[in-house]
Design brief:
This protein has about 375 residues and is mainly beta. It has three helices and 28 strands. A nine-stranded antiparallel β-sheet has the order 11-12-13-14-28-24-23-18-21. Strands 17-26-25-22-19-20 form a six-stranded antiparallel β-sheet, with no helix packed on it. Strand 3 and strand 4 (about 55-65) form a beta hairpin. The radius of gyration is 21 Å and the shape is globular.
Amino acid sequence: MRRLFLAGLAALLASSAQAADVQREPFGATKVGVPVEKTILRNDLGMTVAAIDYGATLTMISTPDRAGRFENVILSLPSVAAYEATSRRWASVIGRYAGRITDGKITVDGKPYTLPVNANHMTLHGGPNGYDKRVWTSHAVSDVRSVGVAFELHSPDGDQGFPGALDITVTYRLMRKANELHIDYAARTSAPTVLNLTNHGFLNLAGAESGDVRDQTIWLDADRYAEVDARKAPSGKLLSVEGTVLDFRKARREGEAMKLDGPLLSPSQGFDHSLAFRATKSGVRVVAWMEDPASGRRVTLLTDQPSVQINSGNGFDGTEKGPGGAAYPKYAGFAFETQHLPDSPNQPAFPSTELRPGRVFKSTTILKFSK
């Protein structure tokens, strides 16, 4: 009997310890009154991750520098109202199709579908009512290796013009004994469709509100990039990065790379390009890293996705501010959007993004922080 009591007490204490690592609190409400919660995750090393139901958006990744000082390194906004008002995507989940689809046209199983388009006649990130503008349902998750939060969204048949009803789960898991954030995606569909999910987070390893990232160093295991026209519509060709500003196979400071400028950078005044990773082993593997020499912080990216959209925060102009009140200047952060290539439904040479009933889409991206 005493042994059973002690075992029960140990299980209760373990459960309480796990619960203490996940906190949930109100974050406000949308303009139509839908409440939004924030979930805060903490690991044994002091790292903290926070995310809100609105857009399944990461609002904090607090990690230490070489001196042990913790700073948030993911760009975020102070309120639900700010997220509703913004035209930018922050560290939210993007879908149904991350990236651009030319002329808002796709064909699935021989049937054409028309999607909402922007001024360039492109469907971008699923359209104006993307998954980053939805309130997801959420619940805390914990196991012996991690603490986390799972976000769920039902996207009905015809949503954003896409066929098939989708049920999506995105789980953020913070490892208890390592400063690693795992992002796991899963989705099922009721009918054949196309799907491309990513997180649109901008990182600044010196601190989210510390200025720009041009002194930070980037390495990418990518040897080709998607050729695009003036509208950023893909041609279907993957060109070598050799000799271009997009060659990060040898690590370079972002600002040093930008000095090369030229036709690849001038349309966006910075990086906004889709790069294909080197064809190596399949599965989750190291594809990139970024380092801030001043603080010593480094993030290593691992993913099972075939490509990444990089963005150097070209559109930031100081009009939006972080929770601490600092304005975000141009190049305030750098985004690594691990995903499939843009316009894949219309490019037979690109890897397929089709999802069919009875199959489960699964993908993982890991952000591993060190100092």
